[in-house]
Amino acid sequence: MSDTAALVIESLEAGYEPGLPIVRGACLALRRGEIFAILGPNGAGKSSLVKAVAGLVPISKGRVLLDGRDITRTPAHRMVFEGLAFVPQTENVFINLSVAENLELAAAIVKAKRRDQLDPVYAMFPDLLRQRALPAGQLSGGQRQMLAVARALIAKPSLLILDEPSAGLSPLLVSHVFNKLREVRDAGLTVLLVEQNVKAALALADRAAVLVEGKERIVGRSTDLLNDERIAELYLGRHTGKQAVKEGA
Ligand SMILES: Nc1ncnc2c1ncn2[C@@H]1O[C@H](COP(=O)(O)OP(=O)(O)O)[C@@H](O)[C@H]1O
Ligand SMILES: [Mg+2]
Fold first, then answer.
1. Nearest to 222 by CA among 187, 188, 185
2. pLDDT one-digit tens code per residue, 48-92
């Protein structure tokens, strides 16, 4: 059991219209307790891939295994009971509800008892405890992202998937959110995230893949990818200085 991969994505094809796959034969295996980043150009299918894994984009071929269990085509709303939590890029909190209500709603969905699941999450996110009465819409971008992560953790998932958690955040807030993801990993979860912010993502992740046209092109340890000429040219602008990927604003 211990050598079972946390998540296996096996020859996955997925897309929005029949016969037009966006994810084209993607294969990835995540190790238990690692942070894995999916990088790649705009439109490469990064969001489509993680949404297909999370049950939000129809899968036409291939399999998804979570802790060895086949979860291919499990409806998105059932994924939380399989141990998979997904934080979408946008609209990941209820802005008209308070911080506390957002967390209590997440707890209600999995029928969690307050003491069992809310308190540990508040302990991990003391800022949210302080701001619990505030409408989520009034949180800063960084705190809102923290709330989205906190909501996802209420169900005690084994795998946390996030689509561009750094989008729209200042570098300081990115480092706060990424530090929290390290804590999440160190608590034993496996973390899969999509990132545009390549430098920060490679500094955070244990391993990463570059997705191009719906298929992984490069997979490796982040430290190796940082020294990979192809990555340097494509994303870090090390050669001309002009090819640097747009910084996550
Ligand atoms: N809801 C959708 N319906 C139809 N096509 C979509 C939808 N979302 C994304 N696509 C298409 O899928 C392709 C990959 O998009 P996406 O997965 O968002 O890429 P990335 O996250 O890597 O930027 C793009 O060509 C995009 O137009
Ligand atoms: Mg995307």
1. 185
2. 999 999 999 999 999 999 999 999 999 999 999 999 999 999 999
Residue ranges per domain, the chain? 33-57+75-83+157-249, 86-156
Cα 43 to averaged position of ligand 1 atoms, centre (Å): 6
**Where do the H-state alpha helices sit in the chain?**
46-53, 76-82, 99-109, 119-124, 126-130, 141-153, 171-186, 198-204, 222-226, 229-231
Q: CB 189: neighbour CB atoms within 10 A?
A: 23
| Residue where the block lists tokens 């939380």 | 80
Q: How many Å apart are CA 166 and CA 62, to the nearest integer?
A: 30
Q: Choose one of 24, 47, 211 to mutate for the ligand 1 pocket test, by most ligand atoms within 8 angstroms of C-beta.
A: 47
- Residue 211's nearest CA partner among 58, 28, 72 is 28
- What mean pLDDT comes out for the span 92-111? 94
Q: Whose C-alpha lies nearest to ligand 1, atom 5? A: 16
Give tens-digit pLDDT for 22-56. 999 999 999 999 999 999 999 999 999 999 999 99
- The Cα–Cα gap between 143 and 89 comes to 14
Residue nearest to ligand 1 atom 26, measured at CA: 43
Fold of 33-57+75-83+157-249: Rossmann fold (3.40.50)
Neighbouring residues of 219: CB distance < 8 A, sequence distance ≥ 6 = 28, 207, 208, 209, 210
| pTM (predicted TM-score) | 0.92
